[in-house]
Amino acid sequence: MTPELGDTGRARRVRRCRHVPCLVSLLSATAACGSVAGGAAADPSPPSPSDSLRERLVALSPPRLPPPPPDPTNDYLTDPRAAVLGKKLFFDTRFSGPLLDEANNGDPATLGMQGETGKVGCVSCHVPTSGFSDTRSTRAQISLGSGWTHRRAKSLLDVGQSRLLNWDGRRDSAFSQPFTPLEDAAEMNSSRLFAAQQIARLYRNEYEPIFGPLPALERYRAVAAADAGCSELPPNLIHASCVKPGADDPDVTRVVVNMGKAIEAFTRQLTCGPSRFDAWMAGDQNALSPDEQAGAWLFVGKGHCDTCHSGPYFTDRSFHNVGLHPDFRFFVGPVDDPGAAEGLGELLTDSLNSRGPYSDGDDGRLDDLPADLTSLVGAFSTPGLRCVARRPSFMHTGQFRSLEDVVSFFARGGDENGFLGTSENVPRDLSATEKAELVAFLRALDGPGPDAALVAAPELPPDPVAE
Amino acid sequence: MTRRSSARPFPMASVATLLGVACAALGCGDGQPETSRAAGTTGGSAGTGGSGTGGSGTGGSAVDGGSSGMPAMGAAGTRSSGGEPPMMVPEQAPPRSPPGSCGLDQPAFCEDFETPKPGGRSGDLDESRFSFARWGHETRMHFVRIPATTEPDTLFPSVFCGKPFAGLLPGNDVAICDGVGVDGLTSRQLNEVYDDQADFAINSNRIRQLFDFTDRTGTIVFDVDAKVNPCNLGHGWWVELWITAEPAPIPYHEAPGVLSYPKNGLAIMFQGLNTCPQGRWATEVNGVFVSKDFAIVHDVPGWELQHDSDEARCIKVADQKLNRFKILLNQNQAEVWASDYDDARNLHRMAVLPDLNLPFTRGYVHLQHSQYNARKDRCDNGGVTGVQTYRWDNIGFDGPTYVTPRGYGVDDNTEPDIDGSGGHLYGWYLKDNSWVDLTVKGVDLTDATSASVDYSFLGGAGRVVMYRLNGGPTHEYEVPEFLDGSGGPRGGTRAFSHEVPLAELVPGDNTISFMMSAPQTEKEEMLGNVELTIQPSR
User: Fold this and answer.
1) Distance from CA of B254 to the nearest CA of A (A)
2) How far is CA B513 from the centre of its chain?
3) Contact call for A330 and B255, based on CB within 8 A
4) What pLDDT shows up at residue B443?
5) Phi first, then psi: what are they for A396, rounded to 5°?
6) Which one has a higher pLDDT value, B45 or A338?
7) pLDDT score at B404
8) What angle do CA A203, A206, A208 make, to 5 degrees?
9) What pLDDT is recorded for position A75?
10) Residue B322 near residue B182, CB atoms below 8 Å
11) Would the CB atoms of B487 and A130 count as touching at under 8 Å?
12) Which position has the higher pLDDT, B46 or A198?
């Protein structure tokens, strides 16, 4: 059942649909990507169904996985010093404020006890040994930082492929992304001024050779970690934070922006890598089991999975409402999450976006966002699927604990109600055997993961006070 | 449930229906049948157009008359839904079932709690039939319970054996006393209570006898006042049913400090998020878990289960008012049937749990009272109590009758006031350089065919627990990872059961010793709820 390879012309046409110009159509039509590809005017004779399926498989596995595309918003991407600094910042928890939720009780699955500071970092919810996803937090669902977050921490493998970040597209530049966890009361519960002051205390010697002299932060009172963020959890909000001194200071913000640029230089190296599926597509007949092969054909066939999970990284980089009744039964209670309708709206007015003064370049990534974002109520980004089996839970809420449950969810066309917006999901007529074959295929998308050197914890600079 | 007094008949249904009419008209809030109201004046039903008690449109099975009325799997009843005016119905005779039957035609196990068996760590509970386990926690202190006391200034203050209480600690927190059963008559029931200590906490009661549903649909029944926190915003109290292949204590899904998946198990959780049409005093099946080899393979929220109607998925509940539950189970599907608190005669199907594909067909039934930091939620300008009592009665199941294993619990640690405020340490710290010796007394090895050591363990994956019997050979058990093996070492309380060689046991007193592998980097590696289980041939 190995598909025939070599029809690169058709493959290119399909791939074209993955890029931002396809975004608007994808936002409004479930089968948009397939429609655009299949309707290419240059080919007056549509391929037969079998050719079409084969073509769609080829689109998922090019001969060589493309590297992360250039990111003009960050001039420091290729600076190895920035990558080294970024890795340290990724692993360093000393930028965080107090843990607020009582669930922080000191157990190993928590980051410390309520009231303790300096416990949360990127590494806390993007665990390097677990595919940079969160296998620490209990129930492996939503993450427990300072408090319970409302969305699952995404895996960072292949994050360099993404332009619109976060489940709701709230960030369009990797350098701005750290502002979200840093200032979120439920995540690091900190502030940009405290982070900038910590850079001056802990990383001046590494920061300044890359980014130039730090600003004169002495005009601010030194912020204690206990005062870095909120003193209590805001009620039931997504990405809620407390306004702190320095929030409007461009000098302070610039320091955190540069932190983000260094972190991006590190994280864009994190990849899943080629899978057995790619080996099969390259001609190794034995690379996939019969069940996995059947799952591959289902993925592009009656499963219609590649409608959204398209391209070499199995994502259309877009946002979809799949009709998911969010499950916050246990820890955080119900919450209405508008998803991309809100996230993209905030992005467009954010001075930290790719058009703003902190960006080193604008490649027009925001130009194709739809003017009316209300169509995206309840829509969330399409996650890539390479190394998907490493994740402890699935969907933006993390409420599914197995790929079997995920496939069953999509097979039944999502939930009937209990979610915001309008679902694009439709039932798929899949037998139990076919669902099992799809799961087998998804498990075959695992790759070698990032190099061990990227996973290993770096040595962090000592705290001057503790010396 | 055996009738012990000729208490008043059971006019509650009609009274409640009448009050429901009044509340619907006058707006009695959420219909909470306040326990502080005068006896006999149970509150309204929130005016939902309840089914009444005349049997119209309930589609459920009666529990009276010794006829179990077992609903056949898949024989869905349809319950009359809202929109109809509440019916005024005549009083009716209370449901009855023969003593000792628990409402089952052919019970393999039935416990009606008419005979207290005081002593041991389980209060009045008969430890030859049940294994009782606790999970309690304070910051940096595990296996700790603080005294449970009625909190009169909070919303929903609890009573114990019908009365306010103070200072209840393990041993005194489980009692059998009089109460009104589902038949409206006074009988004895099991009361258990705790203070959740602003965290997760569990009381878990396991039936020692094996429940077998191999190649059949088995039935489990129980009565409980299945209330939930009416202010639930993610915190509160609820009951759960677990069935596990091993006799390990406290199966539970993940929570901080509790990562106690059973190796193979099924859980049905009865909770709610204030989405029931009956109002805030209503319970639904809000989650189903299936674990296989320490990984959750199905985690299904209640709304993804099959329901006959929006109203039927919920039952009306009230403090101290028992609901009757009946679970039908085979390897691939389960159905949950239950009654409203004010209409115990009629059970309706709350949910169908399809596609379970359970990795076992015989297991142990655990009935659990769980809480999560109930004080954290507020409503109606009030704070919620963190102390709750559940009342249990008529616990039983059908099927093959197996010889009940003999269980020998290790007496709890009794280190008092560990936290300076009355906290009671009932577990044991483990070391990497010395054995912790625990004694089980009076072990009877007559006709023994197998034995296991069962316990709750706190520690991380990858750590090695060493244990031995009577100074014999050391056995090692590496704490397994869970989920998909993708995580690093994580800690929490786990549920373990290890088969041990009979040859290492002696009749009479036995010593079970535990130690951890070196080096021990976590200060708190602990265990509790330790038992020796002997399976006899007859």
Assistant:
1) 5
2) 29
3) yes
4) 98
5) -65, -20
6) A338
7) 96
8) 95
9) 97
10) yes
11) yes
12) A198
Position A150 pLDDT exceeds 70: yes
Neighbours of A82 (CB within 10 A): 24
For every residue of B19-42, DSSP letters joined together read HHHHHHHHT-TT----TTSPTT--
Chain A residues closer than 8 Å to B298 by CB:
401-402, 404-405
For B492, the closest of A108, A399, A409 (CB atoms) is A108
| Cα–Cα distance, B131 to B181 (Å, whole number) | 23
Predicted TM-score of the model (pTM)? 0.79
CB of A392 less than 8 A from some CB of B: yes
- Name every residue whose Cβ is closer than 8 Å to that of residue B283 and which is 6 or more positions away in sequence: B226, B227, B228, B238, B270, B271, B272, B276, B314, B315, B317, B323
Q: Which amino acid is at B323?
A: N
Q: Which of A107, A126, A327 best tests the B interface by mutation, with the highest count of B CBs <10 A?
A: A107
- Chain B segment 198-227 residues within 8 A of A by beta carbon are 198-199
- Provide the pLDDT for residue A217: 86
Work out the minimum CA distance from B233 to partner chain A, whole angstroms.
4
Chain B residues touching A405 at Cβ < 8 A: 298-300
What pLDDT digit, counting tens, does each position of A88-126 carry? Answer: 999 999 999 999 988 887 777 789 989 999 999 999 999
In angstroms, rounded to a whole number, what is the distance separating the alpha carbons of residues A76 and B424? 57
- Place A335 in a pLDDT band, splitting at 50, 70 and 90: confident
Please tell me if residue A108 touches chain B, with a CB cutoff of 8 Å.
yes
Nearest CB to B299; choose among A109, A405, A415: A405
**Number of neighbours of residue B322 by Cβ within 10 angstroms:** 28
**Nearest CB to A135 within list B199, B235, B486:** B486
Query: Which of A26-30, A150-154, B221-225 has the weakest average pLDDT?
Result: A26-30
Instruction: Give, as one character, the DSSP assignment of residue A96.
Output: -
Partner-chain residue, chosen from B234, B256, B355, that has the shortest CB–CB distance to A109: B256
Question: B268 to chain A nearest CA, in Å?
Answer: 13
> Could you tell me how many CB contacts below 8 A there are between chain A and chain B?
127
Instruction: Tell me the nearest-neighbour CA distance from A307 into chain B, angstroms.
Output: 24
- Looking at residue B493, what is its pLDDT? 80
CB B260 within 8 A of CB A139: no
Q: What pLDDT score does A181 carry?
A: 95
Phi-psi label, residue B52: left if phi above 0, alpha if psi -120 to 50, beta otherwise = left
- What is the ipTM for the molecules in this complex? 0.71
Q: Please give the residue of chain B at the shortest CA–CA distance from A108.
A: B491
Q: Which residue of B has its CA nearest to A111?
A: B256
What was the pLDDT predicted at A329?
Answer: 67
Distance in angstroms (rounded) separating the CA atoms of residues B481 and A99: 27
Who among A109, A135, A404 is closest to B492 (CB)?
Answer: A109
> If you count them, how many residues does chain A have?
467
Low-confidence stretches of chain B (pLDDT beneath 50): 1-71, 75-94, 484-489
Q: Does A115 touch chain B (CB under 8 A)?
A: no
Core vs surface per residue B61-80: b (16+ CB within 10 A) or e: bbbbeeebbbbeeeebbebb
pLDDT-based confidence at A38, cuts 50/70/90?
Answer: very low
Identify the pLDDT of residue A11.
28
Which has the closest alpha carbon to A277: A457, A77, A60?
Answer: A60
Residues A354, A366 contacting (CB under 8 angstroms): yes
Q: Is residue B253 less than 8 Å (CB to CB) from chain A?
A: yes
**Which residues between 473 and 492 in chain B have a beta carbon less than 8 angstroms from any beta carbon of chain A?**
483-484, 486-492
In chain B, residues with a C-beta closer than 8 Å to the C-beta of A136 are 487-488, 490
Q: What is the pLDDT of residue A236?
A: 64
* Least confident among A266-270, A355-359, A417-421: A417-421
Q: A32-41, A83-92, A275-284: which range is least confident on average?
A: A32-41
